[in-house]
């Protein structure tokens, strides 16, 4: 008889072979297993404890951006650096609204590979801002004037787009529970399964934000972009706009890309494991191959304005028109509004009292 030394998948105890039934039977938890099934189970677990290949990403190459008409504008107040045409010279910083902006020559900057062009114009962005403010009863009247609205600026925000092929192979320990009555006993039968899922898929244009200055909360709120609409970049797309210079490079963004791709692979496979009482991943191997990276610009309408010492932001997706904003609330108006509410409440209470008397 062959010597088998398996551990009980249920409780971890060593499993002896039970001659009469031809099964492996656990003395601790009373589970029974088919020896062949256990052998396969062991094999799969072993294969998946091997280290996966390191994610293979190409080294990002860029010849650099050469364009005599372009310059870098540096904000002396917050340090932001943006690229814009020399002629349209950025007059105020898109990040903090400061007007102390210095210009310098365009050197040592990556040329974007792709761009998602603006599909929503300045007028539409202004209108959206006005409409957004209109609904806000608590908004200070002095906040929204033409000077403020005119500060709204079109800016391209940098992203790294990752393409790769993925092979995923994941095991799950799963159970199904069946409970039935047998004479005076209630019997609960738990069946244990080793579920294995494997698949290949490709990832296209997975975005990772290349700007730390652009608050993630705002970017996430106005996402998503349709990355399939990205076209080859030429400087003409920048006419009248500014482009934020990335401050997180392709190398530093790789861990984020790896993480997002791995999580997506896990979710894709996990979604196919259905019909079990419990499902716990027990091993996985996820390999990323043929990874390529491109640098891309996404359009944003941005307004950063300072009001009574605090900065307020309005950001709008320049492709879809989705926007987000935080706007100042004046204490004086808040008090008035509360007063109106209190009076209205009083009237309603009085009406209810009157109705009560007539009913
Ligand atoms: Zn056991
Ligand atoms: Zn600034």
Pick out the low-confidence regions: 354-359
Look at the structure and give the mean pLDDT: 83
The unique ligands bound to this protein are:
zinc ion
| Structural domain tally | 3
State the distance separating the first and last CA atoms. Answer: 92 Å
Helix content: 10-25%
Number of strands: 16
What proportion of the residues form beta strands (DSSP E)?
Answer: 35-45%
Strand pairing plus helix content: what structural class? alpha+beta
Counted by DSSP, the helix tally is 6
Shape: elongated
- Sheet having the most strands: 11 strands, mixed
**What is the helix/strand order?**
EEEEEHEEEEHHEEHEEHEEEH
Radius of gyration: 31 Å
Give the arrangement of secondary structure elements:
Layout: E1 6-7, E2 14-15, E3 17-18, E4 23-25, E5 32-33, H1 35-49, E6 70-75, E7 81-85, E8 101-105, E9 114-115, H2 122-134, H3 146-150, E10 153-182, E11 185-209, H4 216-222, E12 231-232, E13 242-244, H5 250-270, E14 278-307, E15 310-317, E16 323-325, H6 331-358
Parallel strand pairs: 9-14, 10-13
Antiparallel strand pairs: 1-2, 3-4, 4-5, 6-7, 6-8, 7-13, 9-12, 10-11, 10-14, 14-15, 15-16
The protein binds zinc ion (ZN) (2 copies).
Structure description:
Helix content is 25%, strand content 36%. With 359 residues, the chain is α+β, with helices and mostly antiparallel strands. The protein is elongated. The termini are far apart. Bound molecules: zinc ion (ZN) (2 copies). The site of one zinc ion has 8 residues, from loops.
